[in-house]
Amino acid sequence: MVIKVLEECKIPLNKIVKLREDTILIDVDKHDLRDVIKCLVLEKGLHFSTCIGVDYSGLREGELALVYVLTRPRVKLMLRVLISENEEAPHVHDILPAAEWCENEAYDLLGLKTSLPIAERFILHWGVPSDVRPLRKDFRHDMKIHSLASCKLIEKEGFVEVDPHHPFFYEHEDFLIKVVGNRIVDVLYIGSYINRGIEKVGESRLKIEQVPFIAERICGICGFTHSTAYCQAVESALNIDVPERARFERALMLELERIESHLLLLALIAYAIGLRDIFLELLRYRELVMNACDVLVGNRKMYGLNVIGGVRYGFTVEQVRSVRELVKKLKDVERALERLSESENLKKLKDVGTLPREDAHKLGAVGPVARASGIDYDVRRDLSYAAYEMVDFDVPIMDSGDTYARIIIRCEETIQSIRIIEQVLSREELVNGELRTEYYPHPGRTGIGMTEAPRGENVHFVITGHDSKLYRWKVRAPTYANLAVLRTILIGESPKNAPIIIASLDPCLSCTDRLVKVRKW
Amino acid sequence: MKILYLNLGGCNGCDIELLAGVVRVVEKIGRELPSPDHGIRSRSYDITIVTGPGTLGNLCRIVRDLERIGGEVDLGHVIVLGSCACGGGIWYDSYMVCGGWDMFLRELISRGFRIRYRSVTYVTGCPVRPEDVEKVLVQLLHSYPNLISSLT
Amino acid sequence: MYRQARKGEKMVRGYPVHDPERCIGCGACSNVCPTDSINVDRKENKIVWIHNVARCIRCCYCVDNCPTGALSVGDEYSMIADSLDKLFIVHELDSARCTSCRDYVPYSINVISYLSDKALKVDLKCERCRLGNVLKVIEKVRKL
Ligand code: SF4
Ligand code: SF4
């Protein structure tokens, strides 16, 4: 199937390397790249995930590369463009806006040559000296650059800050909007506050089997999905098969995490639209999920369960029994969600912040945001992983693409997740069987792992290196893709709706800002 | 009572547990806590809550804040939450991270800012547990009765 | 493997508890710790095991990898203090000695009971003496 599509896009078949059953790597010539992307994404409708800059100098002499990742059901496609040091890097973001952030990120972190007018820093903090290119192999992860940096903020005229969208806490990123009359006419997002240099630490200080712990700490809400995606990437690179028990344990924790994340967001939305009792009620249900995690792994967050090739500890029958009790209580959340979705205040959000299907595809939106705009794409079903093949669930889709739809989708997903959890808890495999497979970390293998995080498709790309370390690790968190739609959904809206529209994307900025960006439109 | 809440680039884990902890404190003492400042806007605070390892971006944010208010601040009682803020956590030696509250403070002081505080409490854990947040906050409020009485 | 500590009704995965009576000072824990919060310092005549609880992220990966069972999952999750110095756990272990030259070897004295528990004959030698022995054997073989 996919081979036919590739042929139609004039990709020579001898350039195709099949890395695994579902992973294909193709070396594409720099000059063909634009045509290939245009054909595959815009005509054939493949989903564009991300692109990755790689400094190959430690594996092969003096080569750089850009890897574009595309997906369609059951297939992950990597298009690799090799470039030499003095050559100008290719770009496709003028025909495919979704590629803009990741391309600029690669230019910035690797110092690729480009003729495009990218001003100051894009990903790194703008005060960092211009010769700091952290993803080059000669850059040390523990170099101290604080003393070098200047803290001047870029001044932007005519923009005002949006109120923090979380009631008690918020992360530091600035959403600046420009207002004329009573309408938003321009949006500026300044991130870069939470860049912790995770990828570099994972590539240099940590060993391959320690990285799941840092991957988990990318995000305090959806951490487990990151460590699962990372483990899957390495498992795909090294061709490791995961035992069934580990798959079920992973699926269970992933779904608990999804419920927890959705309930937090829905609670905050309820608070924002003035339904304080539903806010407290949803938080109480969320506590049940936290307790379930506590029972299973001994910690409310940061489960520390994943290792490459499986999981660290097995759940016992008693643990499963007490979780089943908690899930029984959790089922009542349906009633609270019903009350939320039927409330008048929520219905006011219909036709607010609309994202048409076309734009969602071009901008590369993922997860509930894309599904609310009618894009039928869910990694759990289309690129099945963990135990999702063995359970039964629906993927809710809506067509209107407005803020209301994005919230309703999450209510329905929560209910589906409870359904999955009930099925997993009743399986024998959850408590019997092997926990993990042994492996040997061969250097120079490439792999890609994808999961459906609560916020959408989450991509981890790895190249294994020598000394049981990673050579390259790239994380594309879902919010990174979803923030690209900000401008489309905000422009033309009234500024008083801006916080709730932004919140309906469920932006998780600690994920996104593990790298950083200064975004100018 | 004035609360300052500094998220210095953590992963949100501690922040959400802090929220859960504060809900418990409010239930226990029966009074609402005032909503906190997220950046340094005033020259003196009663309680400062810190999470996160202190990223370069946040360092610059605080530097800008301090420049705006004249370079001098009294943080009151500082509560440092989580492994990141206590000792830098898993990214303690990353190029984008100062490595915990102490290093962060040193970085600020080396830039010539005058920062005073009355006490520091380090609460470890990754993430912190709401029980601990509750315990520390309630203890603090009880040992300084004037803090409680300033609540409505 | 992983043992869950019970604290009343709740189970917690606390910070690792170190038993200086069993630790042989091999340094496996400090090697696998993702945050480098455990340090096994080899001094002249002793081995200092230092744990920085402030930085520890409670992953208990060290517990998985300790060969002797000196580390176990604690039932205390939080440690609250008013200064960072109080958040260090320091245990000093005496180094064992080589049975030939009486020099210190890079393991603690617990290594003897650990090995004899495993029903291994203990003849603890420092690297120099061990190599010296091998050399002597090689010499002998040559002369033959
Ligand atoms: S015996 Fe266990 S605690 Fe002692 S140094 Fe080795 S791994 Fe660490
Ligand atoms: S629990 Fe984890 S972070 Fe703490 S000392 Fe052990 S390995 Fe290191």
SSE blueprint and pairings:
The complex is a heterotrimer of chains A (521), B (152) and C (144).
Chain A (H helix, E strand, L loop, with lengths): L1 H7 L7 E5 L2 E5 L5 H11 L3 E9 L7 E10 L2 E10 L15 H11 L48 E3 L12 E7 L2 E8 L7 H7 L6 H6 L6 H16 L5 H29 L3 H22 L8 E2 L2 E2 L5 H14 L2 H10 L1 H4 L9 H7 L3 H6 L6 H4 L20 H23 L20 E8 L2 E9 L5 E7 L1 H5 L3 H5 L7 H7 L4 H4 L5 E2 L2
Parallel strand pairs in A: 2-5
Antiparallel strand pairs in A: 1-2, 3-4, 4-5, 6-7, 7-8, 8-14, 9-10, 11-12, 12-13
Helix pairs in contact in A: 6-7, 7-8, 7-15, 8-9, 8-10, 9-15, 10-15
Chain B lengths: L2 E5 L5 H17 L17 E5 L4 H14 L2 E3 L2 E5 H6 L13 H10 L3 E3 L2 E5 L6 H14 L1 H5 L3
Parallel strand pairs in B: 1-2, 2-4, 3-5, 4-6
Helix pairs in contact in B: 1-5
Chain C lengths: L4 E3 L2 E3 L3 E3 L9 H5 L5 E5 L3 E7 L8 H5 L5 E3 L6 E2 L6 E10 L6 E5 L1 H8 L9 H17 L1
Antiparallel strand pairs in C: 1-2, 3-6, 4-5, 5-8, 8-9
The structure holds iron/sulfur cluster (2 copies).
The site of one iron/sulfur cluster has 13 residues of chain C, from helix 1.
Note down, in words, how this protein is organized.
The complex is a heterotrimer of chains A (521), B (152) and C (144). With 521 residues, chain A is an alpha+beta fold. Helices cover 38% and strands 17% of the residues of chain A. A 5-stranded mixed sheet of chain A has the order 1-2-5-4-3. A 4-stranded antiparallel sheet of chain A has the order 6-7-8-14. A 3-stranded antiparallel sheet of chain A has the order 11-12-13. In chain A, helix 9 (317-330) packs antiparallel against helix 15 and helix 10 (333-342) packs antiparallel against helix 15 (403-425). The two termini of chain A are 38 Å apart. Residues 162-170 and 512-521 of chain A have low confidence and may be disordered. Chain B has 6 helices and 6 strands, in the order E-H-E-H-E-E-H-H-E-E-H-H. In chain B, helix 1 crosses helix 5. The termini of chain B are close together. Helices cover 24% and strands 28% of the residues of chain C. Chain C has helices at residues 28-32, 61-65, 110-117, 127-143, and strands at 5-7, 10-12, 16-18, 38-42, 46-52, 71-73, 80-81, 88-97, 104-108. Chain C has a 4-stranded antiparallel sheet with strand order 4-5-8-9. In chain C, a hairpin with a 6-residue loop joins strand 8 (88-97) and strand 9 (104-108). The longest helix of chain C has 17 residues, at 127-143. Chains in contact: A-B, A-C, B-C. Chains A and B meet through helix 4 of A and helix 1 and helix 2 of B. Strand 6 (119-123) of chain B pairs antiparallel with strand 7 (80-81) of chain C, so a sheet runs across the interface.
